[in-house]
UniProtKB/TrEMBL annotation:
Its EC number is 2.7.8.29. Catalyzes a base-exchange reaction in which the polar head group of phosphatidylethanolamine (PE) is replaced by L-serine. It comes from the Eukaryota. Residues 392-422 are annotated as: Disordered. GO terms for biological process: phosphatidylserine biosynthetic process. InterPro entries: PSS. Pathway: Lipid metabolism; Phospholipid metabolism; phosphatidylserine biosynthesis. One of its GO terms (molecular function) is L-serine-phosphatidylethanolamine phosphatidyltransferase activity. Belongs to the phosphatidyl serine synthase family. The gene is Ptdss1_1. It catalyses: 1-octadecanoyl-2-(9Z-octadecenoyl)-sn-glycero-3-phosphoethanolamine + L-serine = 1-octadecanoyl-2-(9Z-octadecenoyl)-sn-glycero-3-phospho-L-serine + ethanolamine; 1-(1Z-octadecenyl)-2-(9Z-octadecenoyl)-sn-glycero-3-phosphoethanolamine + L-serine = 1-(1Z-octadecenyl)-2-(9Z-octadecenoyl)-sn-glycero-3-phospho-L-serine + ethanolamine; 1-(1Z-octadecenyl)-2-(5Z,8Z,11Z,14Z- eicosatetraenoyl)-sn-glycero-3-phosphoethanolamine + L-serine = 1-(1Z-octadecenyl)-2-(5Z,8Z,11Z,14Z-eicosatetraenoyl)-sn-glycero-3-phospho-L-serine + ethanolamine; a 1,2-diacyl-sn-glycero-3-phosphoethanolamine + L-serine = a 1,2-diacyl-sn-glycero-3-phospho-L-serine + ethanolamine. It is a multi-pass membrane protein. This is Phosphatidylserine synthase. Pfam families: PSS.
Length: 422
């Protein structure tokens, strides 16, 4: 049924596109015709994928919605591959086909400078530094971390990623001036207020979703209009709820998986800033916002697929397709950054920052070796030693009591032990 439905929709869409092209006179503009042809090809592919792609783990608001974002992931990955194989100049100028205002180098804004919370030298507004930092990115930080919490569903992982990204901004501010911020902008406005409040609201939403009863009823079976409206709103909530219990210290496999998730998250966050820098896109451009909306939709599916693969590998024998696409997209974006501006990425870290990162990596590796190798060997040795002691104690007890019903005395050499004792 789905295949016949797909062919019908594709046939109607193809006829509609052909009818439009026949009605109007084809303009003698190569660039316009190329863009129009690419858009029409993408629409046909999305139409095919929405009805034929494999369903993901989510079914609300509708499985077709998540199939659509899966197909968008494929289109975006193909676009990134195309940009990757262009020269630096051609790639930046190609962005003009999307928006004529792009393709122009833009200055990076420095959020550092005067870091006084209260500036007595400014008589009109001593708190001007705070108002200067309160721009449109403050609510973006809050909503971003609210949605990330809904994806990760773990308070500790969210806080680790939030704090780690601030350390990355400290470490890379010599490469991107946009990372240069005041200390209170890093830790008070970002970590505590924006990120922390977003994580808190996200965890409260997760608690509500975990306590909610999921009893779905047909819309036309609900008698009241209020019940119908409530049912329509609940259509955008999960069909059922799965609580994520990552338990990173339970096994080496889960520990490496959690570390990989944190690494990919941080790399995707850095790609946001570096792509703007190398492709000359202003931070407020709609393409930057569309990319964030894209990652919000595909990231939730990818996290669920990763968790299912980790939690039940017997049933989910391979990693989901959306998770693989997100990993490929993140890696391709990083390759674009490396190719388009290798000079910025190869700027050496300050010596004290290098020391801090080396120390942190050594501590993580040391804890990993102790937790999953040395500790296990020590516990196994203690267990074997305890079993030997218990066995020796039972043997001595049997010998001292002379109990004929003991299991030890029922062995072939039981008679010899009895004679020796007598």
């Amino acid at each position: 049924f789905r295949r016949a439905h797909t062919l019908t929709v594709l046939f109607i869409l193809t006829c509609a596109l052909g009818y439009v092209t026949l009605l109007e006179e084809t303009p003698q503009d190569t660039a316009y015709n190329t863009k129009r042809g690419i858009v029409a090809s993408i629409l046909v592919f999305l139409c095919f994928g929405v009805t034929q792609a494999k369903d993901g783990p989510f079914s609300r608001p509708h499985p077709a919605y998540w199939r659509f974002w899966l197909c968008v992931s494929v289109v975006y990955e193909l676009f990134l591959i195309f940009i990757l194989f262009q020269t630096v100049q051609d790639g930046r100028q190609f962005m003009k086909y999307i928006d004529p205002h792009l393709g122009v180098p833009l200055p990076e804004r420095d959020y550092g400078g005067n870091c006084l919370i209260y500036d007595p030298g400014n008589g009109t507004d001593p708190f001007h530094n705070i108002w200067d930092k309160l721009d449109g990115f403050v609510p973006a930080h809050f909503f971003g971390w609210y949605l990330k919490t809904l994806m990760i569903r773990d308070w500790w992982m969210c806080m680790i990623i939030s704090v780690m990204f601030e350390f990355l901004e400290y470490s890379l501010e010599h490469q991107l001036p946009n990372f240069s911020e005041c200390w209170w902008d890093h830790w008070i406005m970002d970590v505590i207020l924006c990120n922390g409040l977003g994580i808190y609201c996200g965890m409260k939403t997760l608690s509500w979703l975990s306590l909610k009863t999921y009893k779905w009823q047909g819309l036309w079976n609900i008698p009241t209009y209020k019940g119908k409206m409530k049912r329509i709103v609940f259509q955008f909530t999960p069909y059922s709820w799965v609580k994520f219990e990552w338990k990173p210290a339970s096994s080496l496999r889960r520990w490496l998986a959690v570390c990989g998730i944190i690494f990919v998250f941080l790399l995707a966050e850095l790609n946001t800033f570096y792509l703007k820098f190398v492709l000359w896109m202003p931070p407020e451009h709609y393409l930057v916002l569309l990319r964030l909306v894209f990652f919000v939709n595909v990231g939730g599916v990818a996290m669920r697929e990763i968790y299912d693969f980790m939690d039940d590998p017997k049933f989910h024998k391979k990693l989901g397709q959306q998770a693989w696409l997100v990993a490929a997209i993140t890696a391709t974006e990083f390759l674009i950054v490396v190719k388009y501006d290798p000079y910025t990425l190869t700027l050496s870290l300050p010596f004290y920052i290098t020391q801090c990162w080396i120390l942190g990596i050594i501590l993580v590796l040391t804890w990993t070796a102790w937790r999953f190798f040395i500790r296990d060997i020590t516990l196994r040795y203690k267990e074997i030693r305890r079993q030997k002691q218990e066995h020796r104690h039972e043997k001595d007890k049997c010998l001292s009591n002379g109990d004929g019903h003991s299991a030890l005395l029922e062995e072939p050499n039981g008679s010899k032990l009895r004679e020796r004792k007598l």
